[in-house]
Amino acid sequence: MAVHEIKHPLVQHKLGVMREANLSSKDFRQLASEVGNLLTYEATRDLKTEPATIESWSGDEISVEKIKGKKITVVPILRAGLGMLDGVMELIPNAKISVVGLYRNEETLEPVAYFDKVVKDIDQRTALIVDPMLATGGTLIATIDLLKQRGCNHIMGLFLVAAPEGIEAVQSAHPDVDIFTASVDDKLNEQGYILPGLGDAGDRIFGTR
Ligand SMILES: O=P(O)(O)OC[C@H]1O[C@H](OP(=O)(O)OP(=O)(O)O)[C@H](O)[C@@H]1O
Ligand SMILES: O=c1cc[nH]c(=O)[nH]1
Ligand SMILES: [Mg+2]
């Protein structure tokens, strides 16, 4: 499993603004989407292309490059993953969306699954999981388990912030899954929140703080 920490200045600047405690929900949501967009750009860097012949504006036939191979399904994890979805879809507007719903039990920190609607042909698609936070890794591992049970065999994940503890857990459960994140942060606190982190990303995106 490869972990890509995206050090692009735009990503780092936007993430820095998101760390400010008093940022409005509106601005937090806007930035979550923008960083989601930039992470998508990085995660799709290695997609294969193939030449295709088209008629150009001048009437000449020319060769252009088109993306080939597996199609993508974007997998936002409810709720907080919705905050990044628009930015992700802006770059890959033809991708199908497979929604999964999980929340973390606040006492046990175990993931609780409550919804899924996954595309039928997921066995022929790359899944791009989208969630702002990778903390203990429980939610991501449960999501990958579900996608693999449905036949998916190529999975990547986009996260605004990831904790080393969660990365390690995912690495040992699913070594084939690649992670793209704006930051590998320091650690988890006793309540399982990432430090320095962003706080509760779902609450900040939806204004339920
Ligand atoms: O790595 P983990 O320890 O499993 O934690 C990460 C999960 O916790 C948050 O969701 P939350 O449970 O707060 O649900 P929400 O999106 O509905 O707010 C976050 O968006 C991840 O899905
Ligand atoms: O720091 C964290 C950990 C889990 N979920 C969040 O929203 N934030
Ligand atoms: Mg939450």
Can you describe what's shown?
With 209 residues, the protein is of the alpha/beta class. It has one domain: Rossmann fold. The chain has helices at 9-18, 25-43, 82-91, 138-149, 164-173, 201-206, and strands spanning 3-5, 49-55, 61-67, 71-78, 96-97, 99-104, 111-117, 125-130, 133-134, 155-162, 178-184, 187-188, 194-195. Strands 1, 4, 5, 6, 7, 8, 9, 10 and 11 form a nine-stranded mixed beta sheet that branches. Strands 2-3 form a two-stranded antiparallel ribbon. Helix 3 links the parallel strand 4 and strand 5 (96-97). The protein binds 1-O-pyrophosphono-5-O-phosphono-alpha-D-ribofuranose, uracil and magnesium ion (MG). Magnesium ion is lined by residues 80, 200, 202-203. Pathway: Pyrimidine metabolism; UMP biosynthesis via salvage pathway; UMP from uracil: step 1/1.
Mean pLDDT: 97
Instruction: Give the number of domains.
Output: 1
User: Major β-sheet, in short?
Assistant: 9 strands, mixed
Order of helices and strands: EHHEEEHEEEEEHEHEEEH
Q: What is the global morphology?
A: globular
Q: Strands, helices and their partners?
A:
Elements: E1 3-5, H1 9-18, H2 25-43, E2 49-55, E3 61-67, E4 71-78, H3 82-91, E5 96-97, E6 99-104, E7 111-117, E8 125-130, E9 133-134, H4 138-149, E10 155-162, H5 164-173, E11 178-184, E12 187-188, E13 194-195, H6 201-206
Parallel strand pairs: 1-11, 4-5, 4-6, 4-8, 8-10, 9-10, 10-11
Antiparallel strand pairs: 2-3, 6-7, 12-13
Helix pairs in contact: 1-2, 2-3
